[in-house]
Recover the amino acids of this structure.
């Protein structure tokens, strides 16, 4: 297993925000798989969804992991919320490093993202219901992938980072 820290969890759980702070504190570079894909495709995630569909985007995520296994060492890697859903990605995540699941409540996600129009999966009539439905499906997958689970809804960034550093 490589010496990377991988942050997984539902959209809005804080993977990117925690990852950026962790990268400063641990003096490691950070990679966000969504940004990596956007740079490679030269379009936003929303545009990729609109143009090619979710399945094509999920394939791009898997390709991203395969490439990171070849190149990433001692990095903080924040992955898209849906990336762990693909069965094939479980093994790739484990190979890439220590997987930390930032677990969050649906209500917390809703409060954080209700104004965010850049999330294609939340552009629906009842976003909270959509969040609950997606989370029920994804939670067991996140748990299966994770080496460490941290319930983050009530924690500050410092508390989350302290738990991650203790775990690695």
């Amino acid at each position: 297993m490589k010496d990377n820290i991988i942050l997984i969890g539902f959209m809005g759980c804080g993977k990117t925000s925690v990852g950026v702070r962790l990268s400063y504190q641990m003096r490691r570079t950070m990679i966000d798989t969504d940004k990596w894909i956007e740079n490679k495709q030269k379009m936003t995630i929303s545009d990729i969804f609109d143009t090619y569909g979710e399945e094509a985007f999920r394939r791009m995520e898997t390709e991203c992991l395969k490439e990171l296994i070849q190149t990433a060492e001692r990095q903080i890697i924040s992955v898209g919320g849906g990336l762990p859903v693909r069965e094939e990605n479980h093994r790739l995540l484990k190979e890439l490093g220590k997987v930390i699941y930032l677990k969050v409540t649906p209500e917390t996600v809703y409060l954080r993202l209700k104004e965010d129009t850049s999330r294609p999966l939340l552009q629906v009539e009842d976003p909270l219901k959509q969040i609950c439905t997606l989370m029920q499906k994804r939670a067991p997958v996140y748990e299966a992938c994770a080496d460490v689970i941290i319930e983050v809804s009530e924690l500050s960034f410092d508390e989350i980072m302290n738990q991650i550093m203790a775990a690695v």
In short: The mean pLDDT is 93. The longest helix spans residues 127-145. The beta strands are 5-8, 30-32, 76-78, 98-103, 148-151.
